[in-house]
Amino acid sequence: MTMNDSVNILNSAYLAVEYIDSFLPDNPLQQPFKNAWNYMLDNYTKFQIATWGSLIVHEVAYFLLCVPGFVFQFIPYMQKYKIQQDKPETWEKQWKCFKTLLFNHFFIQLPLICGTYYFTEYFDIPYEWEEMPRWYVLVAQCFGCAVIEDAWHYFLHRLLHHKRIYKYIHKVHHEFVSPFGMQAEYAHPLETLILGTGFFIGIVVFCNHVILLWAWVICRLMETIDVHSGYDVPLNPLHLVPFYAGARFHDFHHMNFIGNYASTFTWWDRIFGTDSQFIAYKEKEKKQQLIMKKKAN
Protein backbone atom coordinates (compact mmCIF):
# COMPACT_ATOMS: atom_id res chain seq x y z
CA MET A 1 0.00 0.00 0.00
CA THR A 2 1.44 3.38 -1.03
CA MET A 3 1.51 6.48 1.11
CA ASN A 4 -1.16 8.10 -1.07
CA ASP A 5 -3.46 5.12 -0.55
CA SER A 6 -3.03 5.39 3.21
CA VAL A 7 -3.75 9.11 3.15
CA ASN A 8 -6.87 8.53 1.03
CA ILE A 9 -8.13 5.89 3.48
CA LEU A 10 -7.59 8.21 6.45
CA ASN A 11 -9.31 11.09 4.63
CA SER A 12 -12.25 8.84 3.77
CA ALA A 13 -12.51 7.66 7.38
CA TYR A 14 -12.41 11.27 8.59
CA LEU A 15 -15.16 12.31 6.16
CA ALA A 16 -17.28 9.31 7.19
CA VAL A 17 -17.01 10.18 10.89
CA GLU A 18 -17.71 13.85 10.13
CA TYR A 19 -20.82 12.83 8.16
CA ILE A 20 -22.10 10.64 11.01
CA ASP A 21 -21.38 13.42 13.52
CA SER A 22 -23.59 15.80 11.53
CA PHE A 23 -26.61 13.60 12.39
CA LEU A 24 -25.89 13.39 16.10
CA PRO A 25 -27.94 15.62 18.43
CA ASP A 26 -26.30 18.74 19.82
CA ASN A 27 -24.33 18.22 23.00
CA PRO A 28 -26.17 20.10 25.78
CA LEU A 29 -22.87 20.64 27.59
CA GLN A 30 -21.18 22.29 24.62
CA GLN A 31 -22.53 25.81 25.19
CA PRO A 32 -21.70 25.90 28.95
CA PHE A 33 -18.24 24.53 28.14
CA LYS A 34 -17.79 27.18 25.45
CA ASN A 35 -18.83 29.93 27.86
CA ALA A 36 -16.45 28.65 30.54
CA TRP A 37 -13.60 28.34 28.04
CA ASN A 38 -14.07 31.88 26.71
CA TYR A 39 -14.35 33.21 30.27
CA MET A 40 -11.02 31.57 31.04
CA LEU A 41 -9.41 33.15 27.96
CA ASP A 42 -10.79 36.59 28.85
CA ASN A 43 -9.67 36.55 32.49
CA TYR A 44 -6.34 34.70 32.51
CA THR A 45 -3.13 34.96 30.55
CA LYS A 46 -1.87 32.15 28.34
CA PHE A 47 0.93 31.51 30.82
CA GLN A 48 -1.56 31.11 33.67
CA ILE A 49 -3.77 28.82 31.59
CA ALA A 50 -0.91 26.66 30.36
CA THR A 51 0.85 26.42 33.72
CA TRP A 52 -1.70 26.57 36.52
CA GLY A 53 -4.50 25.21 34.36
CA SER A 54 -2.41 22.16 33.48
CA LEU A 55 -1.44 21.63 37.13
CA ILE A 56 -5.06 21.84 38.27
CA VAL A 57 -6.22 19.44 35.54
CA HIS A 58 -3.53 16.95 36.52
CA GLU A 59 -4.11 17.11 40.28
CA VAL A 60 -7.90 17.08 40.14
CA ALA A 61 -8.02 14.29 37.54
CA TYR A 62 -5.42 12.19 39.38
CA PHE A 63 -7.02 12.19 42.80
CA LEU A 64 -10.62 12.01 41.54
CA LEU A 65 -9.74 8.96 39.44
CA CYS A 66 -8.14 7.38 42.51
CA VAL A 67 -11.33 7.70 44.56
CA PRO A 68 -13.17 4.56 43.28
CA GLY A 69 -10.22 2.24 43.98
CA PHE A 70 -9.71 3.86 47.39
CA VAL A 71 -13.39 3.35 48.28
CA PHE A 72 -13.41 -0.28 47.04
CA GLN A 73 -11.21 -1.38 49.96
CA PHE A 74 -14.04 -0.54 52.38
CA ILE A 75 -16.76 -2.39 50.42
CA PRO A 76 -16.85 -6.14 51.14
CA TYR A 77 -18.75 -6.85 47.90
CA MET A 78 -15.90 -5.41 45.79
CA GLN A 79 -13.28 -7.66 47.35
CA LYS A 80 -14.19 -10.49 44.98
CA TYR A 81 -12.85 -8.30 42.17
CA LYS A 82 -9.53 -7.63 43.90
CA ILE A 83 -6.80 -9.44 42.01
CA GLN A 84 -4.39 -10.17 44.88
CA GLN A 85 -6.90 -10.81 47.64
CA ASP A 86 -4.24 -11.94 50.11
CA LYS A 87 -2.55 -8.51 50.01
CA PRO A 88 -4.98 -5.81 51.20
CA GLU A 89 -4.12 -2.13 51.17
CA THR A 90 -2.80 -0.61 54.40
CA TRP A 91 -2.99 2.94 55.72
CA GLU A 92 0.77 2.97 56.20
CA LYS A 93 1.46 2.17 52.54
CA GLN A 94 -1.15 4.61 51.27
CA TRP A 95 0.18 7.45 53.42
CA LYS A 96 3.75 6.76 52.29
CA CYS A 97 2.56 6.74 48.69
CA PHE A 98 0.65 10.01 49.12
CA LYS A 99 3.69 11.85 50.54
CA THR A 100 5.92 10.67 47.69
CA LEU A 101 3.27 11.69 45.17
CA LEU A 102 3.13 15.23 46.53
CA PHE A 103 6.90 15.52 46.24
CA ASN A 104 6.94 14.18 42.66
CA HIS A 105 3.99 16.29 41.58
CA PHE A 106 5.28 19.60 42.90
CA PHE A 107 9.07 19.24 42.70
CA ILE A 108 9.43 17.10 39.55
CA GLN A 109 6.31 17.50 37.44
CA LEU A 110 5.46 21.15 38.22
CA PRO A 111 8.80 22.46 36.89
CA LEU A 112 8.09 20.51 33.68
CA ILE A 113 4.55 21.90 33.54
CA CYS A 114 6.02 25.41 33.77
CA GLY A 115 7.50 24.81 30.33
CA THR A 116 4.06 24.20 28.80
CA TYR A 117 3.48 27.86 27.95
CA TYR A 118 6.82 28.14 26.14
CA PHE A 119 6.06 24.92 24.26
CA THR A 120 2.73 26.29 23.02
CA GLU A 121 4.35 29.58 22.05
CA TYR A 122 7.26 27.96 20.20
CA PHE A 123 4.94 25.74 18.14
CA ASP A 124 2.26 28.45 17.85
CA ILE A 125 -0.41 26.21 19.38
CA PRO A 126 -3.78 28.00 19.60
CA TYR A 127 -5.97 28.45 22.68
CA GLU A 128 -9.06 29.93 20.98
CA TRP A 129 -12.41 28.15 21.04
CA GLU A 130 -12.80 28.47 17.26
CA GLU A 131 -9.53 26.55 16.72
CA MET A 132 -10.50 23.66 18.99
CA PRO A 133 -10.62 20.28 17.17
CA ARG A 134 -13.84 18.27 17.02
CA TRP A 135 -14.36 15.50 19.58
CA TYR A 136 -13.56 12.65 17.19
CA VAL A 137 -10.29 14.31 16.15
CA LEU A 138 -9.39 14.71 19.82
CA VAL A 139 -10.18 11.04 20.48
CA ALA A 140 -8.01 9.98 17.52
CA GLN A 141 -5.16 12.22 18.70
CA CYS A 142 -5.31 10.80 22.24
CA PHE A 143 -5.25 7.28 20.82
CA GLY A 144 -2.21 8.21 18.72
CA CYS A 145 -0.51 9.65 21.82
CA ALA A 146 -1.29 6.40 23.69
CA VAL A 147 0.28 4.28 20.92
CA ILE A 148 3.46 6.37 20.98
CA GLU A 149 3.67 6.46 24.78
CA ASP A 150 3.07 2.72 24.98
CA ALA A 151 6.01 1.99 22.64
CA TRP A 152 8.31 4.30 24.61
CA HIS A 153 7.13 2.84 27.90
CA TYR A 154 7.64 -0.77 26.81
CA PHE A 155 11.29 -0.41 25.81
CA LEU A 156 12.37 2.04 28.53
CA HIS A 157 10.43 0.19 31.23
CA ARG A 158 12.04 -3.06 30.13
CA LEU A 159 15.45 -1.37 30.27
CA LEU A 160 14.75 -0.15 33.82
CA HIS A 161 14.29 -3.80 34.80
CA HIS A 162 17.85 -4.62 33.75
CA LYS A 163 19.62 -6.16 36.74
CA ARG A 164 22.41 -3.55 36.67
CA ILE A 165 20.12 -0.55 37.13
CA TYR A 166 16.85 -1.93 38.54
CA LYS A 167 17.76 -1.46 42.21
CA TYR A 168 18.79 2.17 41.68
CA ILE A 169 15.62 3.49 40.00
CA HIS A 170 12.67 1.24 39.20
CA LYS A 171 12.77 -0.71 42.47
CA VAL A 172 10.99 2.21 44.16
CA HIS A 173 7.88 1.68 42.02
CA HIS A 174 7.91 -2.03 42.86
CA GLU A 175 7.84 -1.49 46.63
CA PHE A 176 4.16 -2.42 46.37
CA VAL A 177 3.75 -5.99 45.11
CA SER A 178 -0.01 -5.50 45.11
CA PRO A 179 -0.61 -2.10 43.48
CA PHE A 180 -3.43 0.36 44.18
CA GLY A 181 -4.61 3.28 42.07
CA MET A 182 -2.82 6.09 43.89
CA GLN A 183 0.47 4.21 43.39
CA ALA A 184 0.37 4.79 39.61
CA GLU A 185 2.85 7.70 39.80
CA TYR A 186 4.75 6.46 42.85
CA ALA A 187 8.26 6.30 41.45
CA HIS A 188 11.87 7.45 41.70
CA PRO A 189 12.25 11.02 40.38
CA LEU A 190 14.49 9.75 37.57
CA GLU A 191 11.83 7.25 36.52
CA THR A 192 9.26 10.05 36.48
CA LEU A 193 11.47 11.87 33.99
CA ILE A 194 12.48 8.83 31.92
CA LEU A 195 9.09 7.18 31.46
CA GLY A 196 7.28 10.52 31.52
CA THR A 197 9.13 11.58 28.38
CA GLY A 198 6.90 9.20 26.41
CA PHE A 199 3.89 11.29 27.42
CA PHE A 200 5.29 14.39 25.69
CA ILE A 201 6.34 12.76 22.40
CA GLY A 202 2.74 12.36 21.27
CA ILE A 203 2.02 15.95 22.23
CA VAL A 204 4.85 17.15 19.99
CA VAL A 205 3.53 15.02 17.11
CA PHE A 206 -0.20 15.72 17.34
CA CYS A 207 -0.82 18.89 19.34
CA ASN A 208 -2.82 21.48 17.36
CA HIS A 209 -4.64 23.00 20.34
CA VAL A 210 -3.95 23.36 24.06
CA ILE A 211 -7.06 21.25 24.79
CA LEU A 212 -5.15 18.15 23.62
CA LEU A 213 -2.67 18.65 26.47
CA TRP A 214 -5.46 18.36 29.01
CA ALA A 215 -7.42 15.65 27.18
CA TRP A 216 -4.30 13.48 26.90
CA VAL A 217 -3.43 14.07 30.58
CA ILE A 218 -6.88 12.81 31.60
CA CYS A 219 -6.76 9.81 29.23
CA ARG A 220 -3.28 8.79 30.37
CA LEU A 221 -4.17 9.12 34.06
CA MET A 222 -7.39 7.17 33.52
CA GLU A 223 -5.39 4.31 31.98
CA THR A 224 -2.48 4.19 34.43
CA ILE A 225 -4.68 4.47 37.54
CA ASP A 226 -6.94 1.74 36.17
CA VAL A 227 -4.11 -0.73 35.53
CA HIS A 228 -2.65 -0.02 38.99
CA SER A 229 -6.03 -0.20 40.74
CA GLY A 230 -5.60 -3.82 41.84
CA TYR A 231 -9.23 -4.51 40.89
CA ASP A 232 -10.50 -6.24 37.75
CA VAL A 233 -14.02 -4.83 37.68
CA PRO A 234 -16.46 -6.18 35.06
CA LEU A 235 -18.09 -3.81 32.57
CA ASN A 236 -15.04 -1.54 32.68
CA PRO A 237 -15.49 0.71 29.60
CA LEU A 238 -11.72 0.79 29.03
CA HIS A 239 -11.91 -2.89 28.08
CA LEU A 240 -13.66 -1.74 24.88
CA VAL A 241 -10.36 -0.22 23.70
CA PRO A 242 -8.70 -2.65 21.23
CA PHE A 243 -5.72 -4.53 22.70
CA TYR A 244 -6.14 -2.81 26.07
CA ALA A 245 -3.97 -4.50 28.72
CA GLY A 246 -5.99 -3.74 31.84
CA ALA A 247 -5.49 -4.19 35.57
CA ARG A 248 -4.99 -7.98 35.56
CA PHE A 249 -2.23 -7.69 32.95
CA HIS A 250 -0.24 -5.04 34.84
CA ASP A 251 -1.00 -6.48 38.28
CA PHE A 252 0.83 -9.62 37.18
CA HIS A 253 3.86 -7.46 36.37
CA HIS A 254 3.97 -6.19 39.96
CA MET A 255 3.45 -9.67 41.32
CA ASN A 256 5.95 -11.39 38.99
CA PHE A 257 8.43 -8.51 38.27
CA ILE A 258 9.22 -10.03 34.86
CA GLY A 259 7.19 -9.50 31.68
CA ASN A 260 4.14 -7.41 30.80
CA TYR A 261 6.23 -4.26 30.38
CA ALA A 262 3.84 -2.21 28.21
CA SER A 263 1.70 0.49 29.77
CA THR A 264 -1.53 0.41 27.76
CA PHE A 265 -1.62 -2.21 25.01
CA THR A 266 -0.61 -5.86 24.76
CA TRP A 267 1.02 -6.01 21.32
CA TRP A 268 4.66 -5.25 22.25
CA ASP A 269 4.69 -7.95 24.92
CA ARG A 270 3.07 -10.35 22.46
CA ILE A 271 5.58 -9.54 19.69
CA PHE A 272 8.62 -10.03 21.95
CA GLY A 273 7.15 -12.91 23.98
CA THR A 274 7.42 -11.06 27.29
CA ASP A 275 3.86 -12.06 28.14
CA SER A 276 4.65 -15.79 28.09
CA GLN A 277 4.72 -16.14 31.88
CA PHE A 278 1.43 -14.26 32.14
CA ILE A 279 -0.20 -16.56 29.58
CA ALA A 280 1.10 -19.61 31.45
CA TYR A 281 -0.23 -18.15 34.71
CA LYS A 282 -3.69 -17.63 33.19
CA GLU A 283 -3.74 -21.19 31.87
CA LYS A 284 -2.83 -22.48 35.32
CA GLU A 285 -5.63 -20.40 36.85
CA LYS A 286 -8.16 -21.80 34.36
CA LYS A 287 -7.14 -25.38 35.17
CA GLN A 288 -7.46 -24.71 38.90
CA GLN A 289 -10.92 -23.21 38.40
CA LEU A 290 -12.03 -26.27 36.40
CA ILE A 291 -10.77 -28.58 39.15
CA MET A 292 -12.65 -26.52 41.78
CA LYS A 293 -15.86 -26.71 39.72
CA LYS A 294 -15.54 -30.49 39.34
CA LYS A 295 -15.04 -30.90 43.07
CA ALA A 296 -18.03 -28.68 43.78
CA ASN A 297 -20.22 -30.80 41.48
Automatic annotation (TrEMBL):
Pfam families: FA_hydroxylase. Residues 144-274 form the Fatty acid hydroxylase domain. GO terms for biological process: lipid biosynthetic process. GO terms for molecular function: iron ion binding; oxidoreductase activity. The chain crosses the membrane at residues 60-79, 100-120, 192-217. It is found in: Membrane. One of its GO terms (cellular component) is membrane. Keywords: Membrane, Transmembrane, Transmembrane helix. This is Methylsterol monooxygenase 1. It comes from Athene cunicularia (Burrowing owl).
